[in-house]
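Hi there. Long-time user, first ticket. I'm pasting a complex I've been working with (about 560 residues overall). I'd like to know whether the download I got is complete or cut off, because the file seemed smaller than I expected. Thanks.
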Amino acid sequence: MSERIDLSVNIGGLKLKNPVMLASGTVGYGNEISNFTDLSKIGAIVTKSVSLNPRKGNPPQRIVETPSGMLNAIGLANVGLESFINDKIPFLKEVNSTLVCNIAASSIEEYVECTKTLDGEDTIKGFEINVSCPNVKEGGLIFGNDISSVGRITEKVRAVTNKPIIIKLSPNTSNISEFAKVVKDEGGDAVSAINTLVGASFNIWNKKPKINNVTGGLSGPAIKPVAIAKVLEISRKVDIPIIGIGGIMDWKDAVEFMIAGASAFQIGTVNFINPNAGIEIIEGLESYCSQMKIKSISELTASYNLE
Amino acid sequence: MQISKIPVVALEQLQNNVFLLKARSKELAEKSSPGQFFNIKVSDSYFPLLRRPFSISNVENDILTFMFDIHGEGTKLLSLKKEGDNIDLIGPLGNGFNLDDDFDTAVIVAGGLGSAPFPLLLNKLSKEKKVKSFVGGRSKPNVITWKLANVNIATDDGSIGFHGNVFQLIKKHENIFTENKCKVFACGPNPMLKALQEYCLANNINCELSTECAMACGFGICQGCPIESSDKKSPYKLVCKDGPVFNAKDILI
Ligand SMILES: Cc1cc2nc3c(=O)[nH]c(=O)nc-3n(C[C@H](O)[C@H](O)[C@H](O)COP(=O)(O)OP(=O)(O)OC[C@H]3O[C@@H](n4cnc5c(N)ncnc54)[C@H](O)[C@@H]3O)c2cc1C
Ligand SMILES: Cc1cc2nc3c(=O)[nH]c(=O)nc-3n(C[C@H](O)[C@H](O)[C@H](O)COP(=O)(O)O)c2cc1C
Ligand code: FES
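Hi, the file is complete. Here it is re-exported in full:
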């Protein structure tokens, strides 16, 4: 390559060396996946949703494969705030990637307390607030489907940190751009879209649901067109940086999200199948940009041609 | 633990629906130990989406063998592999059987495809140890005794061996547990593992169980494969990372 392509992006103050982020819940806390891929080359790692206290998660069966996708009802199993700080952050500090911490909670106070506690950790460069987990009884979608709750969470979290705040939106709503607008109005720096879509699947022989929680979150290639439409909707209606998520398997999918309006993107399910996918996507993006004579990847964002 | 692409050297039909996939890799052969597994990509595309987990059935020189039956779409695709194809696999994964304990007799208990991991186990077992195998299946065609030693068979329909399940068969041979210092190694359907677990715990017999569970990643990042732990302080273990082989006292089935 003759000319160096600028892959760096700035998402509402969160500066990344490239737009590839590893999605929450699909990379754990980084240590296992580091056996397969060079995390220092990845734009950002978003850690598994952390809550104030540890959560043991849902009983098995938690996952099932579906056509071009999978349903999961992990139930936000996580080590809790204290162990996250003591046991997980030290490894992530060594990695030399940008760390975004994803927070899940069942009350506004819990979101605030987690953010406040983590704000002092230098390693954490931004927060992603999960208001859209479909698999827990309290919090989760109850917040994610209520515009005023999303507004209040954004406002209260904003009050306790100066670091970039990303609100992770639910696709299980018909008006995602209104949620993005309230995030912007209440001082959020970016939105990420989408979290998983609610889905279910039955065993036809015993008529029981295939996952214990009955419903789960659908992810993988099956949700990509839905996700792209949500990104496009936000991009056309609200002036806020968007992180695109949903079914990205390779660099072509990633480019599609950026064209539709994303400033960066996250890869989730693909990590389970190809834990080196992030690096391969970076290489693919470089060669796409050089073929398309794009000097800076950020030119791609919302470059759609709707004529 | 790594992603590899290795050449298939043979796809053999062992018996009716049971196949052996043999692939070459010196490095992976050296790293593999009994009870561990690989997460195999069965197609070149993302259909089906997820990898499929398979135990390492045997290792001979630089050849790894996997044993499987046709279950659904994934295993059907795997059965179409042929010499010269490459397979993409992640592993070896998980914790296998512990052969270093104090025992003089290895008691192998397998139900159906549960025979898969034991050829490698016997291969690695010190030659001084005695072996006694109990193999069960629904009917004669489902009984897999490939490379096992000292085999006693049970079938549900009585078409070969003892008429009944493998656990009932073991109970008939109970004296082996008093006459020898035994360690039980088991793999098979959950009801079999559960009966065996209860029996071994009640009689203070050292026992390891190889468990199965739906998996996405196979290496600990998705949290998709919990199994209940007997330790109340940490309620779930992960089958892929903490297992798939567990000591009978550590899990609840
Ligand atoms: C640690 C481990 C070791 C295994 N070793 C062997 C082996 O040596 N030989 C062998 O024949 N089988 C083994 N299995 C089971 C094997 O993974 C399944 O038979 C296989 O995934 C079925 O895929 P399919 O597409 O043919 O079936 P489908 O039923 O179409 O699969 C649908 C989905 O369910 C999952 N699934 C179905 N059955 C099982 C199962 N029993 N366990 C876990 N996931 C399942 C599949 O992975 C897939 O995601 C093992 C499973 C585990 C967890
Ligand atoms: C097994 C699994 C666990 C997940 N856990 C979380 C989580 O803890 N917090 C969160 O915000 N999103 C979680 N997600 C959602 C992903 O971050 C992502 O939004 C979604 O999977 C869509 O992207 P994908 O199609 O690339 O997987 C999880 C997804 C999967 C498949
Ligand atoms: S299969 Fe993903 S954690 Fe075990």
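A couple of notes from our side: Chain A has one domain: 9-58+75-199+217-300. The first strand of chain A starts at residue 9 and ends at 11.
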